[in-house]
Design brief:
The complex is a heterodimer of chains A (503) and B (273).
Chain A: H1 2-19, H2 22-40, H3 46-57, H4 63-80, H5 82-87, H6 97-108, H7 112-145, H8 150-168, H9 173-187, E1 190-191, E2 198-199, H10 213-229, H11 249-254, H12 256-271, H13 277-291, H14 303-327, H15 333-344, H16 355-378, H17 380-386, H18 391-410, H19 413-431, H20 437-459, H21 466-469, H22 471-485, H23 489-502
Helix pairs in contact in A: 1-16, 2-3, 2-4, 2-16, 3-4, 3-10, 3-15, 3-18, 4-14, 4-15, 4-16, 6-7, 6-14, 7-12, 7-14, 7-16, 8-9, 8-20, 8-22, 9-20, 10-18, 10-19, 10-20, 12-13, 12-14, 13-14, 15-20, 18-19
Chain B: H1 23-55, E1 64-65, E2 68-69, H2 79-101, H3 104-110, H4 118-141, H5 144-159, H6 164-184, H7 195-214, H8 219-242, H9 253-271
Antiparallel strand pairs in B: 1-2
Helix pairs in contact in B: 1-2, 1-3, 4-5, 4-6, 5-6, 5-7, 5-8, 6-7
Classes of the chains: A mainly alpha (503), B mainly alpha (273).
């Protein structure tokens, strides 16, 4: 009880400190507005919003304001994706893909205003559910993570990369793993962390410090989208918004069980390392279709279906921050960009993180969700107008933003070359359906994996048994092996035969 | 290998949703993908071998370096990269097997099977040229506002509407500006010269006039000069004076004047007590 009270007091202190600072509102309203705009414009994603703002705000303003800007954009962008999903049948972000299934039929039936209002409220409640989970579980996990040593850290980093590769692959699962391995390989460039041995520097002094995170993020997430988006696209027919946006309380209360269930699912999926909002949206939609009495109407304009995906993708944000803050492993691609912001501010997320930062993150999330709710309900028509801007107009501006953001973080022209190189590679990877998130997570976790893996071996004099000698490490090793084995066709067949015989 | 039905957040464009492909189109798309996988597997295989060879340069078995004995194998800086590139080599072999089994090799070797039609090749090629000359040629050497203004004008004019001739014109203008800056002022010591700034300014003005002459009726094209001037100016000023950060080419033709007047004319106004 004392623990809960002390957390509430800590959170209250952080919340009041933010509320009484006028600058909070400047950053919050601007970033949430920008985030919703990024989410609403098809071709721009939540990851891109956080990445670009990392380049712009990352290490230029105090960390508190930087976090307000980045988390505000994150929350806003995930919600903003629902606008084109509902009105154009084009998901603004992949996280809102499931939203289009029911949102667009509702808009076609003249219930666009109702759909948008309920979506806004559900996204708000979903974000709060994720934030409450963050406040509770981050402390529990922080206590557990105090006992995590090098073997567990190495295996956890590997698990994050493998899981992200497995779940984010649109085509073959091995493509996700290849992307993760390429990211890990990129992290090996530069002086190694234990012996200061130069690796793959090719005599170029710039490479000695390794690849900088922000140019890699910009290259991986922004450049491919710019290249892909600069094409003529016939704008879909936007459905005129009908009905009032402000939802009535009775409707919200009626759908509260669905919203709560989806919020819990979204938070849980978000907490898995490397798995993003899009997976959360689909998982929740799938569960909703199975358990909801309205399941047969999913895909035909069901409010339950709409709320299942929209609540979950916003709840996922809080969940994605849990592994990021506790273990230093991003829970989603935008969280990977957020990790980049932490890194350039010399904050190392993980068991040693300053607890005050966690309380501030929770307070910012609560404020960001309120801001998103208010902006969503009262300025929706502005965002609908923004939807009409062709991507060939805003993408060139995004390119300029990307260039100056990438340059200013490192302060060198080499970072721009790196950004362009990574961008072209990422474009071709996208073309061949390789997920980019595992690559970025690999780059971010590569150093941690290398250092902790070798430290484990060093402390055990090269005995590989160190990875099974501790219960936590043994469990993680089993999970890693299971994840890989589950994709080997021969093993899958053997398991299937075994199960058939047992049956 | 299993597949996932969802689209990653990082994908360049949202998926056509609900599914807009017929089964035959999906089959065709998969065949193209496997042909690309075939070539990707070869590239990955070669890269893995190359980097495994480079890894052999890092001491592994307690080798001596400048008379100092190295550490044991398990603490070598080569151990993790060795695992990574071996893993990559194995996965590239698996990818090759999948591609060959699904007919990717036959398609990749028999015709232009990678599914890149000339229109798409032109679009990608011109964008690649534009981005290369902007990043490598203009950003380091030319005033950021001028270079970015030219980029925005060229990209919007070139790619709004999807006309191949406009794409080529946009690429030609950026290539001319970028290659001039690179050829005339390759070493860093010459990056402060202004002749390339003037050339970019002339090309920007000429392209803008051309756009106005050809596309007077289009609202998008009428907005180009406003976006091209305001966006980079605001960004570079916010970065330099708001966040006090380094910006590219501080000595550029326009930015030098802006910076001078900011510190000499404007700042004293609010700095005086």
């Amino acid at each position: 009880m004392d623990f809960v009270l002390s957390q509430l007091v800590g959170f209250g202190g952080a919340f009041v400190a933010l509320v009484v600072d006028p600058l909070t509102y400047v950053y919050l309203v601007t970033s949430v507005f920008l985030g919703i705009t990024f989410g609403a414009l098809p071709g721009l994603t939540a990851t891109l919003a956080v990445t670009i703002l990392t380049g712009f705000f990352g290490n230029k303003i105090p960390l508190d304001y930087s976090l307000i800007a980045l988390l505000g954009a994150y929350v806003g962008a995930i919600y903003g994706g629902s606008y084109p999903s509902i009105l154009l049948n084009i998901p603004g972000t992949a996280a809102s893909a499931a939203t289009a299934m029911d949102g667009h039929p509702l808009a076609k039936a003249g219930r666009g205003g109702e759909a948008l209002g309920l979506t806004t409220t559900a996204s708000f409640i979903g974000t709060l559910i994720g934030t409450v989970a963050l406040l509770i579980f981050v402390w529990v996990l922080l206590l557990v993570s105090k006992n995590i040593a090098s073997p567990e850290k190495a295996l956890l980093a590997l698990f994050g990369i493998l899981l992200s590769g497995t779940l984010m692959s649109e085509d073959l699962v091995i493509k996700g793993w290849i992307a993760g391995l390429i990211g890990l390989a990129m992290a090996m460039v530069g002086m190694d962390p234990l012996l200061s041995e130069p690796r793959y520097t090719f005599g170029w002094s710039y490479m000695l410090s390794g690849f900088q995170v922000v140019p890699v993020l910009m290259g991986a997430f922004a450049v491919p989208q710019i290249i892909e988006g600069l094409r003529h696209v016939e704008a879909g027919k936007m459905i005129a918004l009908q009905g009032r946006i402000l939802p009535n309380l009775a409707a919200v209360r009626r759908h509260l069980p669905t919203i709560t269930r989806s919020g819990v699912i979204g938070t849980g999926v978000g907490a898995l390392p490397g798995v993003g909002e899009d997976v959360a949206g689909w998982v929740s939609y799938g569960v909703g279709k199975t358990v909801s009495p309205d399941g047969k109407n999913f895909g035909k304009g069901s409010l339950e279906g709409l709320l299942s995906s929209e609540t979950a993708n916003n709840a996922c944000i809080g969940g994605a921050l849990i592994p990021l803050l506790v273990l230093g492993i991003p829970g989603s691609p935008p969280a990977a960009a957020l990790m980049g912001a932490f890194k350039i501010n010399n904050v190392i997320p993980g068991p040693t993180i300053d607890p005050n930062i966690i309380l501030r993150v929770v307070a910012i999330m609560v404020l960001a969700s309120f801001t998103m709710w208010i902006l969503g309900l009262f300025t929706a028509r502005i965002f609908i107008k923004i939807l009409r801007i062709p991507q060939t107009v805003f993408l060139p501006v995004v390119m300029v933003l990307t260039a100056i953001g990438s340059f200013s973080v490192g302060g060198g022209i080499n970072d721009l070359y790196l950004m362009l190189g990574v961008g072209v590679v990422a474009y071709f990877m996208n073309l061949m359906k390789y997920p980019i998130a595992p690559l970025v997570i690999g780059v971010i976790l590569g150093g941690l994996f290398d250092e902790t893996f070798r430290r484990s071996l060093f402390l055990s004099d090269g005995d590989l048994g160190v990875f099974v000698s501790r219960p936590g490490a043994a469990i993680l090793l089993t999970l890693n092996v299971a994840l890989i084995s589950a994709q080997i066709p021969a093993l899958r067949r053997a398991f299937a035969n075994l199960r058939r015989k047992e049956a | 290998m299993t597949t996932n039905p969802h689209e990653a957040d990082t994908s360049p464009l949202p998926p056509p949703f609900p599914a807009s492909q017929t089964p035959a189109e999906a089959q065709q798309a998969l065949a193209v993908l496997r042909a690309r996988d075939f070539w990707a597997a070869i590239v990955l295989f070669v890269l893995s071998i190359f980097f495994l060879w480079r890894t052999s340069f890092i001491p592994l078995w307690g080798a001596n370096r400048a008379g100092v004995s190295g550490s044991d194998w398990y603490n070598s800086a080569a151990i993790v990269p060795l695992g990574i590139f071996t893993g990559l080599l194995l996965l590239s072999a698996v990818l090759m097997v999948v591609a060959v089994r699904d007919g990717g090799a036959k398609r990749a070797l028999s015709a232009v099977g990678i599914g890149w039609h000339p229109g798409e090749a032109l679009r990608f090629g011109t964008i690649a040229l534009i981005l290369f000359f902007y990043i490598a040629g203009l950003v380091p050497r030319v005033d950021f506002i001028l270079g970015s203004g030219l980029l925005i004008t060229a990209l919007i004019y070139g790619y709004h509407g999807g006309h191949p001739k406009r794409m080529m014109l946009a690429a030609a203008v950026l290539s001319l500006a970028g290659s001039y800056a690179m050829i005339r002022h390759l070493p860093q010591s010459e990056w402060t010269a202004h002749d390339d700034d003037w050339l970019v300014l002339i090309l920007w003005a000429a392209l803008t006039i051309w756009v106005f002459m050809r596309e007077r009726q289009s609202r998008v094209h009428r907005a180009i000069p406003i976006i091209a001037v305001i966006a980079p100016t605001l960004l570079v000023c916010a970065m330099a004076f708001g966040f006090r950060q380094n910006v590219p080419n501080r000595g550029g033709l326009l930015f030098k004047q802006i910076e001078y007047h900011y510190y000499v004319t404007l700042k004293p106004i609010w700095s005086q007590k």
